[in-house]
Amino acid sequence: MKALNPGAMPAPFGDYSHGIAAGGVVATSGQLGLAADGTIPESVAQQAEICFENIRAILNEAGTDIENVLRFSAFVTRREHMAAYMQVRDRWVARLAVKPASTLVIVSGFTRPEFLVEVEALALLPDAASAGE
């Protein structure tokens, strides 16, 4: 197993890794809308953008990218946030021939009330992805 903690991202909030590469897959921890400078944007769309940028950084550190994502799991704090999140997700996967599986759940909240969305991903490493073609 290999821990994935890109240096450009804020450190994890606790004793865990942002991602793990093992057995041909990469699993990311849930990513929140926390910018590298420690700020948290007010909008769901801006937070979701940061979540996806962080996921891409984790995947890149493992040697893979968004096109090898098998599944996104996302969590929003209000039903009204679903559309804004989905617009960001859809833009991130628009160019992909095979769209990842996706789950979206409404939750009561996160570690800080200003967080509105959290996204995690499961992806294949390139060797595993080409073996499945």
TrEMBL record:
Q: Which InterPro entries match?
A: RutC-like_sf, YjgF/YER057c/UK114
Pfam families in alphabetical order: Ribonuc_L-PSP
Taxonomy, superkingdom: Bacteria
Secretion signal span = none
Q: Where does the chain cross the membrane?
A: none
Write down the Gene3D superfamilies for this protein, in alphabetical order.
RutC-like (3.30.1330.40)
What is the protein named? RidA family protein
Q: Which organism is it from?
A: Sedimentitalea arenosa
**Lineage of producing organism:** Bacteria, Pseudomonadati, Pseudomonadota, Alphaproteobacteria, Rhodobacterales
